[in-house]
Amino acid sequence: MGNIFLENSPLFVLTQVVPVLYIATTVLYGLHFFRELPIAGKLKQPALIITIVTHVADIGLLTSLEGYRLSYSAYNLMGMVALTLTITYMFIELTTKSDKTGFFVIAFAAGSALLSSILSAKTIDPGPAVSGIGIGVHLIASIFGFSSVAIAGLYSGIYLVLFRQIRLNRFGLLFQRLPNLEALELLIMHAVAFGFFFLSVTMVAGVLEQQASEEAINLLDPRLLSVGVIWLLYGISLVIKPLFGWDIKHMAVLLIATFVLVTAFLFVMSLFTPSFHGVGL
Asked: What's a single GO BP term from this record (predicted)?
């Protein structure tokens, strides 16, 4: 089977343009955050919207090709992670009128988009295609779940950096530009709640789909175990502070560690397999 991207010139060009737009948008947000350049401030949000629209067009063109459907391939998952992260952040920016964390979130999204573009040139087998409502819900929920994990980890890192700056009486650039600790704590807890919800949907939809297909569920599957552990950690994180008064600093460390481990797991999986699921799922 040939590479579907190399056989379609418009699709290939669009797939390469998407990560360039993500990087350009990241640069604009970085220039606005660190340098407060007026031109960057004016262009960053239009660039964000153009990036999202172009990425959606790329996915639309890809799925319009005969015989191709979204799948569990590393290319699809990394690209969708970038898109959902960016859409989620745009919603936050438009509703809160705060763009102070945009550089950090979009930079990670740009990394995912770049990895997705690299994988598109190497992908021959697109992996098991999505078919059925249950599998579709499972795929979409898993992508939003990881995006929530990423946002929680990123905001936790920002929280710890800002906390350290305040403790050392360094009221510099980060203190002036970033949201205050209370606002960051609220953002972290919201991300954790969303992550717990979407991971719950991911597991339930996956189990129901396997039961419907009459396939045995392997409880020792590393992917199932990893999702279960993250789901448990996020569930505990939602109740440990109000019930036991656990410091948000310790929770932030846990969320960062979870984010790093999940990112490393996805990266390793993308190197050794074209899909995060076997053909049977």
From this structure: cytochrome complex assembly
Q: Contact, 251 vs 241, CB < 8 A?
A: yes
Say which residue the tokens 């599998």 belong to: 135
d(CA 257, CA 271): 21
Burial of 166 (0-12, 13-18, 19+ CB in 10 A): middle
pLDDT in tens, 70-107: 555 666 777 888 998 998 888 878 877 778 889 999 99
Paired strand residues for 275: 73
Domain(s) of CATH 1.20.120: residues in the chain: 1-121
Residues 214-224: tens digit of each pLDDT: 665 565 666 66
Instruction: Answer left, alpha or beta for residue 101, where phi above 0 means left and psi between -120 and 50 means alpha.
Output: alpha
Q: How many of the other CB atoms lie within 10 Å of CB of 42? A: 12
Q: Where are the alpha helices (DSSP H) in the chain?
A: 9-34, 38-64, 74-96, 102-120, 133-167, 173-177, 181-212, 222-244, 248-272
- Determine the topology of domain 1-121 in CATH: Four Helix Bundle (Hemerythrin (Met), subunit A) (1.20.120)
Question: 274: which residues sit within 8 A by CB, 6+ positions away?
Answer: 73, 74, 75, 123, 124, 125, 126, 127
